[in-house]
Amino acid sequence: QVQLVESGGGAVQAGGSLRLSCTASGDTSDREAMGWFRQAPGKERELVAAITWSGNDVLYEGFVKGRFTISIDNAANTVSLQMNSLEPEDTGVYYCTAGLGIRGEYVDWGQGTQVTVSS
């Protein structure tokens, strides 16, 4: 079992920036990757970005368009998501997740943190 605790998030105006962080605890030995998903009101949860613990493999969804950067700190067991040039469409609850592979099954989830972008 892996526990994930998120921090960051909040409310900003369009064009602004936010940084999300997530610290993992517990047995992460078989968790190959960490990632961020988001869920907007009335929509399904979708992948935003993911990264392997080594940092050698990174995945971004197309809507990120170079605006977000995912990074990982192995020493601190922390994954971060720097979000720049935020748009109202980025509004939603952002969830940290740990998975069995960067494109595999994500099995552990944080409680979610709200991101609100106003126009």
Helix content: under 10%
Strand content: over 45%
Structural class from helices and strands? mainly beta
Mean pLDDT: 96
List low-confidence stretches.
none
Strands, total number = 11
Rounded to an integer in angstroms, the radius of gyration calculated over CA atoms is 13 Å
End-to-end C-alpha gap: 40 Å
The number of helical elements comes to: 0
Secondary-structure element series: EEEEEEEEEEE
Estimate the global geometry from the Cα principal axes.
globular
User: What's the story with the biggest beta sheet?
Assistant: 7 strands, mixed
Write the layout of secondary structure elements.
Layout: E1 2-8, E2 10-13, E3 18-26, E4 33-39, E5 46-52, E6 58-60, E7 68-73, E8 78-83, E9 92-99, E10 106-109, E11 113-118
Parallel strand pairs: 2-11
Antiparallel strand pairs: 1-3, 3-8, 4-5, 4-9, 5-6, 7-8, 9-10, 9-11
Description of the structure:
Helix content is 0%, strand content 56%. Strand 4 and strand 5 form a beta hairpin. It is globular, with a radius of gyration of 13 Å. The chain starts with a strand and ends with a strand. The strands form 2 sheets. Strands 2, 4, 5, 6, 9, 10 and 11 form a 7-stranded mixed beta sheet that branches. The protein has 119 residues and is mainly β. It has strands at 2-8, 10-13, 18-26, 33-39, 46-52, 58-60, 68-73, 78-83, 92-99, 106-109, 113-118. The protein contains no helices and 11 strands. 30% of the residues are buried.
